[in-house]
């Protein structure tokens, strides 16, 4: 035994393990199974190493928490500065005419709203609500975070009111305060360290008290995991259980929370109870506040799958149980909110195991992994408030900017032209107001029709012969002392079985989800038309040519932003709504109505099939189409109408604001000089605020923002006039990966924002033929550069620069061809091209086209495709996403698309350069080499009839790519069709 190492311990049996512990005078400290005892033995064997490792876990967490706090402090300071600038501008520099228009859109009290929002933002702490189902182990989980048993826990509901746990610096005295229903605060004395038992006892009496006049309890306690971060408050809340009053108290508090930790009892009937969780999502959905100041952020959610040890203990008896419980929980979460990878927020845990390990000075793997998630949650929750206020400020300031721009447009027009413009604008706005009303009526009618359709499908399914037979077969008749009780039990069973069947039917057929999506798409389509009309009116007032709204203008409009919000609205799926109320009919206490004669219980049990038929028939008679219509109208129609309400309230306000401005311009005639003197200084101030917000967005808000401290540059790969490319290491909590950094040239913040927006869209829709975008840095310094002697240095920029981070690929297509002459079809060293070379050419060409098609589907141009920016990674050909490429660089290339002379770049321009890429890919050389013709300028194009020439079909399509008129160039599908034909030659 003396020779055994810690690696051998896993093979020990229980007797040998106990013998070792006794011999080394080590207490088992309450550990209950062999696996835990093995961990204890290993910890003792490697005591010094283990203690240092586990200590490092906490030390690292404290450092990271301090960094999170520092970043959040910086963000808050910047937001407060923005509020101060806006308050000063609104009070002194904003012309009254524009102020009146803004009040039409945001309300008369907008100035007070700005002041209040600043005050709320400055005073608001990061509150993380910890809740769960009753008996899920919520209080035990909180005690784990608190480092000691502070909160009372039991099998029953142990928390009767909200408890706000404020972290205080280490060594401070503990205390708590009680807030009464009338708002008065009752402070309790501060407790010394040796009074811990008294503190816990006094706190327990207060938290579990049935005194309804106690509203909340504020607990001041050092939370070791948070270090000295006193800006985070943990909120212990009543569980979502059987006590309706306590559950409602939690649901009312949720909209004020920065983040949510939901504790699930994994061992209870397969995990999360969908109906209870659904109440939370329902409340979050119903509490969307004015102008996007509140929004549900899934990154600020954490699900603790507690009591996972019970699942592991049963895995030998029930094969696949762990996977089943995990997937069931994931399904329930996805039902409540689609479109998000909830598995990234789920953590397997055994709170009791983690507490036991901690008592032995150890940190088990599940707890360590959960701590990583907790750190990310704290970071997200601390920044989410800044993000909300930044969005609100951006909306408001952009609206002010639009009003000023419209007014300044008057300085460029004559009075007579302006008169005509005003009349036309008012007429169009009046018509637009009518359009909003008519579209609303039309959509409401469609919603009602769709709800009737859903109800009919539910009704027909439940009343089908097969389903009735299946329901009947699942009814169990239990013996009871009274025949009415037997009958009542059967009726209740049928009610429950119908509920389950409707849930399963929805899960299989997705009738409600499908209907909801169809209506949502129709709503978006209709209101998109309204927004385009609105933007057209704005353009006419600004003296701009009306050609329909561009994507950018639609996104910048309030309506456009509302549409984005609608796409994220949380709906209540049938599995949740039915848990709230199945079919709103009342079951009779007795079925004497249809069982008129009294019969002996024995006789009743002898005719079970007859009893089942009668009960089933009775329930189904009540569950008619009207019942299902009422149910759907009560639980689903309001959700759909809420979407319409939110949008249709925004557009009329916008119309009203524009009408107000046009009327003011009509009534207050100013000369061009007066307009410029009055409005240009205000517009310059607004532009400065917009720039500050854009910079804040780039620096802090974007979800793909990477901290520059996580990057280490290893070498420079290449450099050009437009960018410098580096190889680098990207470090995270768990791993280190090799990436590519592209340092972009100096550009405006607005241009940088456009690039980030484009790349973010691509990040959400990864494609195998597009180089994967990982994230970006917007910073005033380079990442650390590792020198040969391992000394890290960095470079400071004069102005902040944008660096984009991509997956590391093996090589460029240009270099790959240079090293593989046998894959070049037009290689002059060979008499004929081989089949492998032809296959490589066609496969590469098709991959390039597929990547371009994907980007066009995202409404993006590639902007200058070239062999040296096409990559190969693991034999996949990938095109690079668009970057900033100055026209001066593109115009130096040959051949050059004619439209570039006027700096126009379209999809057809991409096709022009695709032709060049295909030529170079065939011949294995640059198109501007010595093969170039010396003929007339318009004919100076690469020759497709050189030695080992292309097949005629291919040559024709390549030449067609170079047509002078962009409209005559082929589509990508035409090019792909020819490549496919050449490949099978």
From TrEMBL:
Lineage, opening ranks: Eukaryota, Metazoa, Spiralia, Lophotrochozoa, Mollusca
Assigned keywords, A-Z: Membrane, Transmembrane, Transmembrane helix
PROSITE patterns: PROTEIN_KINASE_DOM
Highest taxon, organism lineage: Eukaryota
Name of the featured protein: Protein kinase domain-containing protein
Pfam annotation, one family: PK_Tyr_Ser-Thr
Membrane-spanning intervals of the chain: 562-595, 837-856
Single GO MF descriptor: protein kinase activity
Chain ranges of the Protein kinase domain: 711-985
Keyword Transport: no
Keyword Transport: no
InterPro entries in alphabetical order: Dynamin_N, Kinase-like_dom_sf, P-loop_NTPase, Prot_kinase_dom, Ser-Thr/Tyr_kinase_cat_dom
Protein family according to the UniProt entry: Belongs to the protein kinase superfamily. TKL Ser/Thr protein kinase family. ROCO subfamily.
């Amino acid at each position: 035994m003396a020779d055994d190492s810690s690696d051998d311990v896993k093979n020990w049996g229980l007797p040998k393990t106990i013998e070792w512990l006794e011999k080394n005078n080590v207490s088992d400290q309450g550990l209950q199974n062999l696996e835990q005892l093995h961990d204890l033995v290993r910890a003792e064997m490697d005591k010094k190493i283990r203690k240092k490792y586990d200590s490092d876990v906490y030390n690292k967490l404290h450092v990271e928490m301090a960094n999170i706090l520092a970043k959040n402090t910086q963000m808050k300071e910047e937001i407060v500065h923005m509020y101060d600038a806006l308050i000063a501008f609104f009070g002194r520099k904003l012309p009254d005419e524009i102020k009146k228009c803004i009040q039409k859109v945001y309300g008369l009290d907008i100035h007070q709203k700005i002041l209040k929002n600043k005050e709320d933002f400055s005073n608001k702490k990061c509150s993380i609500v910890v809740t769960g189902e009753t008996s899920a182990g919520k209080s035990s989980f909180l005690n784990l975070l608190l480092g000691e048993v502070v909160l009372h826990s039991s099998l029953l509901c142990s928390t009767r009111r909200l408890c706000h746990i404020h972290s205080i610096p280490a060594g401070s005295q503990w205390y708590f305060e009680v807030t009464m229903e009338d708002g008065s605060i009752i402070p309790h004395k501060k407790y010394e360290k040796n009074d811990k038992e008294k503190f816990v006892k006094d706190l327990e009496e207060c938290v579990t008290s049935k005194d309804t006049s106690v509203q909340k309890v504020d607990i001041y306690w050092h939370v070791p995991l948070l270090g000295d971060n006193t800006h985070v408050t943990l909120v212990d809340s009543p569980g979502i259980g059987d006590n309706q009053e306590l559950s409602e108290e939690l649901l009312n508090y949720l909209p004020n929370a920065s983040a949510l930790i939901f504790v699930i009892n994994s061992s209870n009937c397969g995990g999360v109870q969908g109906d209870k969780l659904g109440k939370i999502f329902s409340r979050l959905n119903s509490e969307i506040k004015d102008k996007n100041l509140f929004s549900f952020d899934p990154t600020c959610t954490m699900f603790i799958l507690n009591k996972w040890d019970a699942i592991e203990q049963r895995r030998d008896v029930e094969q696949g149980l762990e996977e089943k419980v995990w997937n069931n929980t994931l399904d329930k979460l996805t039902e409540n909110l689609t479109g998000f990878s909830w598995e990234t927020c789920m953590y397997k845990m055994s709170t009791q195991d983690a507490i036991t390990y901690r008592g032995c000075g150890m940190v088990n793997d599940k707890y360590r992994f959960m701590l990583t998630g907790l750190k990310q949650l704290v970071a997200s929750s601390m920044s989410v408030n800044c993000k909300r206020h930044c969005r609100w400020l951006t909306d408001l300031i952009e609206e002010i900017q639009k009003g000023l721009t419209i007014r300044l447009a008057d300085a460029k027009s004559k009075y007579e032209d302006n008169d005509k413009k005003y009349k036309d604008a008012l007429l169009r706005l009046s018509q637009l107001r009518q359009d909003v009303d008519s579209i609303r009526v039309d959509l409401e009618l469609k919603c009602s029709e769709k709800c009737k359709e859903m109800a009919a499908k539910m009704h027909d399914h439940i009343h089908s012969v097969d389903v009735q037979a299946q329901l009947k077969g699942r009814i169990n008749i239990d013996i009871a002392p009274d025949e009415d009780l037997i009958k009542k039990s059967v009726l209740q069973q049928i009610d429950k079985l119908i509920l389950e069947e409707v849930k399963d039917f929805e899960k299989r057929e997705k009738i409600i989800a499908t209907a909801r999506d169809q209506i949502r798409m129709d709503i978006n389509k209709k209101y998109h038309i309204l927004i385009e009309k609105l933007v057209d009116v704005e353009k006419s007032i600004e003296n701009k040519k009306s050609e329909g709204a561009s994507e950018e203008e639609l996104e910048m409009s309030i309506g456009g932003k509302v549409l984005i919000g609608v796409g994220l609205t949380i709906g209540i799926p049938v599995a949740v709504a039915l848990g709230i109320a199945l079919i709103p009919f009342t079951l009779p206490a007795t079925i004497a109505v249809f069982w008129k004669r009294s019969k002996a219980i024995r006789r009743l049990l002898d005719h079970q099939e007859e009893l089942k038929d009668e009960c089933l028939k009775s329930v189904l008679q009540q569950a008619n189409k009207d019942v299902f219509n009422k149910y759907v109208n009560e639980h689903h129609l309001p959700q759909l109408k809420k979407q319409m309400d939110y949008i249709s309230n925004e557009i009329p306000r916008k119309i009203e604001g524009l009408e107000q401005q046009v009327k003011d311009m009509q009534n207050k005639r100013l000369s061009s000089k007066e307009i410029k003197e009055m409005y240009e200084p205000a517009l310059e101030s607004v532009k400065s605020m917009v720039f500050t917000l854009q910079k804040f967005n780039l620096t802090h808000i974007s979800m793909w923002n990477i901290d520059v401290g996580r990057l280490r540059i290893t070498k420079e790969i290449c450099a050009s006039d437009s960018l410098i490319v580096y190889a680098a290491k990207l470090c995270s909590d768990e791993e280190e990966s090799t990436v590519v950094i592209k340092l972009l040239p100096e550009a405006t913040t607005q241009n940088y924002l456009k690039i980030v927006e484009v790349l973010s869209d691509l990040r959400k829709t990864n494609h195998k033929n597009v180089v994967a975008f990982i994230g970006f840095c917007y910073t005033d310094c380079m990442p650390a550069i590792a020198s040969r002697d391992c000394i890290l240095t960095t470079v400071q920029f004069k102005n902040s620069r944008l660096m984009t981070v991509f997956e590391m690929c093996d090589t460029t297509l240009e270099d790959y061809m240079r090293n593989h002459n046998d894959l070049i079809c037009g290689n002059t060293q060979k008499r004929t091209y081989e089949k492998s070379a032809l296959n490589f050419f066609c496969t590469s060409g098709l991959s390039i086209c597929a990547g371009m098609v994907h980007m066009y589907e995202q409404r993006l141009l590639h902007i200058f495709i070239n062999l040296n920016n096409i990559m190969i990674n693991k034999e996949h050909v990938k095109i690079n996403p668009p970057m900033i490429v100055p026209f001066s660089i593109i115009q130096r290339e040959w051949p050059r698309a004619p439209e570039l002379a006027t700096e126009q770049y379209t999809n057809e321009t991409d096709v022009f350069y695709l032709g060049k890429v295909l030529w170079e890919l065939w011949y294995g050389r640059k198109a501007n080499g010595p093969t170039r013709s010396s003929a007339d300028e318009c004919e100076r194009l690469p020759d497709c009839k050189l030695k080992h020439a292309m097949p005629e079909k291919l040559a024709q399509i390549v030449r067609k790519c170079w047509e002078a008129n962009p409209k005559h160039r082929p589509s990508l599908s035409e090019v792909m069709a020819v490549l496919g034909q050449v490949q099978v030659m």
